[in-house]
Write a structure and sequence with these properties.
It comes from Roseomonas gilardii. It is found in: Cytoplasm. The protein is mainly α.
Length: 213
């Protein structure tokens, strides 16, 4: 039996090139800032980076369209100044508050098992000034021991290891593995030791109490 003749092969459809459109101006950058803040909390520095990435995408499209490089460069420079101003306007309007952002983010990350060192690095990456981050971490109500316990619970180590309640103290190999994980996560040795010395009941009670605070 003869097979059915194959029809002509179709060329793969290429993605449609997005036109550059008008260069970003104060109005469009303000709108982009508001749209971003409607979805994400942000610091002033991080918001500027978001807007600058938008400007960079426009510049790439404009260059691919053959717009004069010197004109693209001029418009990019002007847009970057407007992006910084848009971010400052968001701060003045109260839509951006670095200290409030840092406090909320530090609390969430600590409760998720991140050490103070890891939280500080995260805040720095988000553009929070070191002075602001230090103040927030100093005033944080989240205990470093509680954060270490949350870390162990997520990894099912120490008091939260399967069978820990029946077996009592973890064997030395498991303890050393947990100590290494806590050290890599930025927890001090004394905090790690205290977390691993707690019984499953004590560890669970501490985390429940921390959630109620």
């Amino acid at each position: 039996m003869g097979g059915r003749a194959a029809g002509p092969s179709r060329a793969p459809r290429l993605p449609r090139e997005i036109p550059a459109g008008p260069a970003p101006d104060a109005a469009s950058l303000r709108e982009a800032a508001l749209n971003h803040l409607a979805r994400f909390a942000s610091t002033e520095s991080n918001l500027v980076r978001v807007l600058q990435r938008r400007i960079a995408r426009w510049a790439q499209r404009a260059e691919r369209e053959g717009q004069p490089p010197e004109e693209v460069t001029r418009r990019v420079a002007a847009a970057r100044e407007m992006a910084a101003q848009a971010a400052r306007d968001m701060v003045s309007a109260g839509a951006v508050d670095d200290a409030a952002f840092a406090a909320a983010r530090a609390r969430r990350l600590s409760r998720a098992g991140r050490s103070r060192r890891a939280v500080a690095a995260h805040l720095a990456a988000k553009g929070v000034a070191s002075e602001t981050a230090g103040m927030v971490l100093e005033e944080s109500t989240t205990d470093e021991l509680d954060a270490a316990l949350a870390h162990l619970r997520r990894r099912r180590q120490g008091p939260f290891a399967p069978g820990a309640a029946q077996e009592g103290a973890a064997d030395e190999a498991a303890r050393l593995k947990a100590l290494g994980a806590l050290a890599r996560a930025g927890f001090p040795r004394d905090i790690a030791e205290r977390a691993l010395d707690l019984s499953p009941e004590e560890a669970t009670d501490r985390l429940l109490a921390a959630r109620r605070d």
